[in-house]
UniProtKB/TrEMBL annotation:
InterPro entries xref list: PS_Dcarbxylase, PsiD-like
Single GO biological process annotation from the record: phosphatidylethanolamine biosynthetic process
Domain of life: Eukaryota
Domain L-tryptophan decarboxylase PsiD-like as annotated: residue spans: 42-164
Record bears the keyword Magnesium: no
Name recorded for this polypeptide: L-tryptophan decarboxylase PsiD-like domain-containing protein
Length: 431
């Protein structure tokens, strides 16, 4: 029997091996946080004030913990605030995907409540999402500091053998039977930085969004087939393919299970517009990145960035229509509901006109999932790039990428659902 999506998510490190592992992180932090005392960082304090001053949010945050009951180790919104403050005051904690308790995260804190009716209603609130955006922005700023490196990039944490083995699994010279850190160092660490305690990484984001140490290393570890063949489309990212949808509708029930995409909402957000019109009846390719994947993106074909659009959205809203009541696992529902999350989450869209008319104009959409919402393009509007060149990166977590093609594009796919592909590898040809 082939592995299910849930099997892949556990193996890839997206969800805890057991519910115990997810709860343990909360229990561990709750033993420590009361002893800290201390004040909330300003953006977290603003969230607390918003919840307490907004009638609807106060009711929602009070009720969601009651609806979650014993499924949530977090007692109430006040304890939630303390835990969120702890998360954004520290870098992410390494968790060996083979077992053990993960570090505390927004997922751990909110997983039981965002799948409740009150949780769904609260987390689609615009004012709440503006407050969450400030918190996540502050966290991203902290993760660009030296302190984030000092606390996380050490040989007993993210630079430990266990961590580096996990991050090396898609490097050709890594031998899982004789694991070592040498493949990772060869790929990502410059010779002059080998003696540095942080291997040359200046901060957490520098480590997470690391480029290969040189162009030669990039070409060795992520080779690009037939770079001069303009009919060949390459993978924009290391990722596992979620699905390829054809003849996509202008509007559809994206909040239900079934891999539906609603182009009007995906490409325009809540403000309306006609950006989606040329793509009605076209194709959507979507893949999600694993925690161990390389988190930069490459140009999937040669072309020019015509526009980069930022679409505001939600950060933790999960449609309860996506949740299996017999197996209410928010982590799995997160990825099972990727079309929904790509439609409601805060995201950016790069509209790229390919040099090859057979490819046309493509919407490239990187989406940060939940707390993983920092998206960074390397180039401005008007920049012409060659296939395989660096396009941008995610910061501090796993995410998803979509490509939307016009209906006139004839595509022969060389990949299939649930296949793991490497950045710059062949995924399709146009004809």
């Amino acid at each position: 029997m082939p592995p299910t999506l849930r099997d892949h998510l556990k193996r890839d490190g997206w969800i805890p091996l057991t519910k115990f592992h997810g709860n343990q992180a909360i229990a561990d932090r709750l033993k420590i946080i009361p002893a800290h005392g201390g004040s909330l960082i300003p953006s977290v304090e603003e969230l607390k004030i918003l919840i307490e001053n907004d009638t609807d949010l106060y009711m929602g945050f009070t009720q969601m913990f009651k609806e979650a009951g014993r499924a949530s180790l977090v007692r109430d919104y006040e304890q939630m605030i303390e835990l969120i403050n702890d998360v954004v005051s520290n870098p992410p904690i390494f968790r060996d995907p083979r077992g053990g308790a993960p570090g505390l995260s927004f997922n751990n804190i909110l997983s039981a409540v965002i799948v409740t009716p009150s949780g769904f209603n609260a987390f689609i609130n615009d004012a709440l999402n503006e407050a969450l955006q400030k918190i996540l922005s502050d966290w991203c700023t902290y993760l660009s500091t030296k302190d984030s490196a000092d606390k996380s990039l050490t040989h007993d944490k993210w630079l430990s053998d266990e961590s580096i083995y996990n991050l090396s699994q898609y490097l050709q010279d890594f031998d899982p039977k004789n694991p070592s850190t040498e493949a990772f160092k060869n790929a990502f660490v410059k010779n002059e930085d080998l003696g540095d305690p942080h291997w040359g990484f200046k901060c957490w984001n520098d480590f997470f969004a690391r480029p290969f140490a040189s162009k030669d290393k990039l070409d060795f570890y992520r080779p690009m087939p037939k770079p001069d063949n303009d009919n060949l489309i390459i993978s924009p990212a290391d990722s596992r393919i979620y699905g390829i949808a054809t003849n996509v509708s202008e509007m559809d029930t994206f909040w239900l299970k079934g891999h539906r995409y609603s182009l009007k909402h995906l490409l325009n957000g809540d403000k309306g517009g006609n950006r989606h019109k040329p793509y009605i009846g076209g194709t959507v390719y979507q893949a999600y990145l694993l925690p161990s994947d390389y988190h930069q993106w490459a140009m999937p074909f040669s072309g020019t960035i015509e526009e980069i659009v930022t679409i505001p959205g939600t950060y933790f809203a999960l449609s309860n229509a996506l949740v299996n009541p017999t197996q209410p696992d928010e982590f799995a529902s997160l990825v099972e509901g990727l079309p929904y999350l790509s439609t409601v989450s805060a995201r950016q869209i790069a509209i790229i006109k390919a040099d090859n008319e057979k490819i046309g104009t493509v919407c490239f959409i990187p989406v940060g999932l939940q707390e993983i919402s920092s998206i960074k393009f390397f180039h401005p509007k008007g920049k012409k790039l060659e296939k395989g060149e660096a396009l941008g990166t995610f910061q501090f977590g796993g995410s998803t990428v979509c490509m939307v093609f016009e209906p006139k594009v004839n595509i022969k796919w060389a990949v299939s659902q649930m296949e793991h592909v490497l950045i710059r590898s062949k995924i399709a040809t146009v004809y």
